[in-house]
Amino acid sequence: MRVAILGGTGAMGTGLAKHLSKKNEVIIGSRDERRAGDAASRIEGAVGMGYEAASRAAELAVFAVPYSAIGEAARLSGALSGKVAVSMVNPLKAEGGLLKFALAEGSAAQELAAALPESKVATAFNHISSLFFERETMVPMDVLVAADARGTYEEVAALVTSIPNLRPLYAGPLSEARTIEMITPLLLNLAKMNKTGSLAMKFATTRDPAR
Length: 211
Description:
The chain is an alpha/beta fold. It has a single domain (about 1-195), classed as Rossmann fold. Helix content is about 30%, strand content about 20%. The chain contains seven helices and ten strands. The chain has helices at about 10-20, 35-40, 50-55, 110-115, 130-135, 150-160, 175-195; strands at about 1-5, 25-30, 45-50, 60-65, 85, 90-95, 100, 120-125, 140-145, 165-170.
């Protein structure tokens, strides 16, 4: 799959790109083409482009941008028309020494969907710390995916499973993105208060072989 990581010069974007590049064609997208090229040069097989060119070249785009940049996605609506757009954006704010979910209503993914009305928007990868992406091999974890259409979920699930040890789980329609995004500050606060290091989610089930 040809995947654009928009905002791919940051820690989350480059980390995800490194793992996706092993089984996908990766395009690093940035406002600054030079920065995109520099980031791509450190990932085997990746190329760097500006946002518009990366969006047009990709089959699927992942938004690894800060929440404050979500509104800029609207200018990419034509380039991403008919394509899957994945938000891994978490709106967070610091309060009382801990992190809180920053939105009174809705979610970053729903705002992305409003900016890209002709795209198939999903949320995924929200809970994975950049420290996990720094590892050569990902530890086993579950990736919650919300999307209005089951077909959109299937496309995102295929991307998730292209990274060994990641298991996609369908979390329901995009309205569930708020719940998914709210888990991120919880995980970060748990790690801080319990001094565990970065935490990931892996659900046990009655179908697991070891019980």
